[in-house]
Amino acid sequence: MHLTQAVNVFLREHPNLSIHLELSDKLLDLVAERIDLAVRITNHPDPNLVARKLAPCRSLIAATPEYFARFGTPKHPEDLRHHRYLTHANINRKEWFFYQENQELVLELTSQLTTNETTVLLNSVLSHSGVAMLPKYLIEDYLQNGQLQAVLTDWQLPEFAIYLLYPSRHKLPLAVRALVDFLAGYFADRDW
Predict the structure, then answer these.
(1) What percent of the chain stands above pLDDT 70?
(2) CA triplet 79, 80, 86: central angle to 5 degrees?
(3) Taking Cα atoms as reference points, which of 61, 70, 177 lies closest to residue 128?
(4) What pLDDT score does 5 carry?
(5) Dist CA 134 CA 41 (whole Å)
(6) Mean pLDDT of 126-136
(7) Which residues contact 172 (CB under 8 A, 6 or more apart)?
(8) Cα angle 155, 136, 18; round to 5
(9) Burial (0-12, 13-18, 19+ Cβ within 10 Å), 125
(10) How far apart are alpha carbons 83 and 178 in whole angstroms?
(11) Distance between CA 76 and CA 84 in Å, rounded?
(12) Per-residue pLDDT band at 90 (split at 50, 70, 90)
């Protein structure tokens, strides 16, 4: 969502360039696949690649107000045991970690729905199907307009970062360098 907006702004500023944007949740070999630039959400970027941090990636526990009206609003992470979990296949699939002061709480999960696509997870939550841990960047508009409600915000969740990754600083084409610099500036003040 945000990357698409940024890429389109970049293309308006550079009308002679073209971008092939491929979306995948697989860790592709950038060199073998001849990919100039990747955007990944991780805490451990590939040490064989150049990594430039774009923004933090924080998550929130959220569901619709209708869902919480039906199943109750959790006041403590343990209350989530009585809810329908919807999870991402690659992140927090079987366990949710919560932190508060010096305390760590781990909930083991049995998910009713698991998907490898975050927007599918979001759409399932929006259809009142359950509660999910979703990235703040994806749900901030839904929170503001009241379609979603965040809970347990006094607990910290695992935090990741959004990185630009590319094979080499020295062999980076000028167009890719321009995109890297543009994206770094575009996302510089984001606090997700």
Answers:
(1) 100
(2) 170
(3) 70
(4) 94
(5) 13
(6) 97
(7) 36, 166, 180
(8) 155
(9) buried
(10) 46
(11) 15
(12) confident
SS3 185: helix
Full-model pTM: 0.84
CA gap 61, 153 in Å, rounded: 8
- As to burial, measured by CB atoms within 10 angstroms (0-12 exposed, 13-18 middle, 19+ buried), residue 56 is middle
Q: At 12, is the secondary structure helix, strand, or coil?
A: helix
**Is-contact 107 96, C-beta < 8 A?**
yes
Phi and psi angles of residue 177, each rounded to the nearest 5 degrees, phi first: -60, -40
> What whole-number distance in Å separates Cα of residue 122 and Cα of residue 135?
10
DSSP 61-130: EEE-HHHHHHH---SSGGGGGGS-EEEESSSSSSEEEEEETTEEEEEE---SEEES-HHHHHHHHHTT--
User: In which band, very low, low, confident or very high, does the pLDDT at 31 lie, cut at 50, 70 and 90?
Assistant: confident
Residue 39 identity: V
pLDDT digit string, tens, across residues 151-183:
999 999 999 999 999 998 788 899 999 999 999
Q: How far is CA 108 from CA 85, 115, 188, in A?
A: 11, 17, 35
Q: Please compute the mean of the pLDDT values over residues 85-107 and round it to a whole number.
A: 91
